Amino acid sequence: SYYTKAKFFTSAPDIRHLKNDTGIEVAFAGRSNAGKSSALNTLTRQKNLARTSKTPGRTQLINVFELEEDLRLVDLPGYGFAKVPVAMKKKWQASLGEYLQKRKSLKGLVVLMDIRHPFKDLDQDLIHWAVASSIPVLALLTKADKLKSGKRKAQLLMAREAAMAFMGDVTVQTFSSLNKHGLPELERILDTWFGL
Ligand code: GDP
């Protein structure tokens, strides 16, 4: 797969410090523990590209990975930890909104959500902002291996129904880093965003 070429490119302490607004980038976001790091590692077939099991609520860097010049994957900090002070949450939300609005190279947003708890408030906020900025969204229902096939399909249908309410380009797919379920579908969507 093309995504195995991903290499660490840079870190930024804040979305506002991201440079290189050229070419195409796709951002990955999700609540802490949603399985974002695992999904990035699965996608790139690299065990430690994105760091898993970070300290909850700690200020995290934005990590940028490069596939080749001007094609990037952006790993946004996980959100939703109760212990983070309100002021910090507000600041982060504001800078995230700004990123979705102003980042010219941003061609798609992957929002990772545990298949058992999709579309929590912050996930919805994020998707609303992306739709308002005409950024296509892939809502990735992670840890799909946690559910049996019947329940998994039911959750997917429910989530697709819920996604219609955003009135935008919001695709829903199931995914598992454990057994690679949904990996081809994820790659296909990323391919279209990157123009591959
Ligand atoms: P992040 O905080 O969003 O980066 O989440 P991580 O990738 O660190 O995963 C959080 C926890 O969920 C870890 O204990 C992972 O082992 C687990 N996890 C991640 N993806 C999967 C998956 O596809 N299936 C299962 N069963 N567990 C997963």
Automatic annotation (TrEMBL):
Stored InterPro entries: G_ENGB_dom, GTP-bd, GTP-bd_ribosome_bio_YsxC, P-loop_NTPase
Keyword entries, A-Z: Cell cycle, Cell division, GTP-binding, Magnesium, Metal-binding, Nucleotide-binding, Septation
Alphabetized CDD domains for the sequence: YihA_EngB
The keyword Nucleotide-binding belongs to this UniProt entry's keyword annotation: yes
Cofactor requirements of the protein: Mg(2+)
Pfam families per UniProt: MMR_HSR1
Listed transmembrane segments: none
GO MF, one annotated term: metal ion binding
One GO BP annotation of this record: division septum assembly
Residues covered by the EngB-type G domain: 22-196
Assigned GO CC terms: cytosol
Domain of life from the UniProt record: Bacteria
Function: Necessary for normal cell division and for the maintenance of normal septation.
Family classification: Belongs to the TRAFAC class TrmE-Era-EngA-EngB-Septin-like GTPase superfamily. EngB GTPase family.
Listed name of the protein: Probable GTP-binding protein EngB
Organism lineage: Bacteria, Pseudomonadati, Pseudomonadota, Gammaproteobacteria, Alteromonadales
Gene symbol of the encoding locus: engB
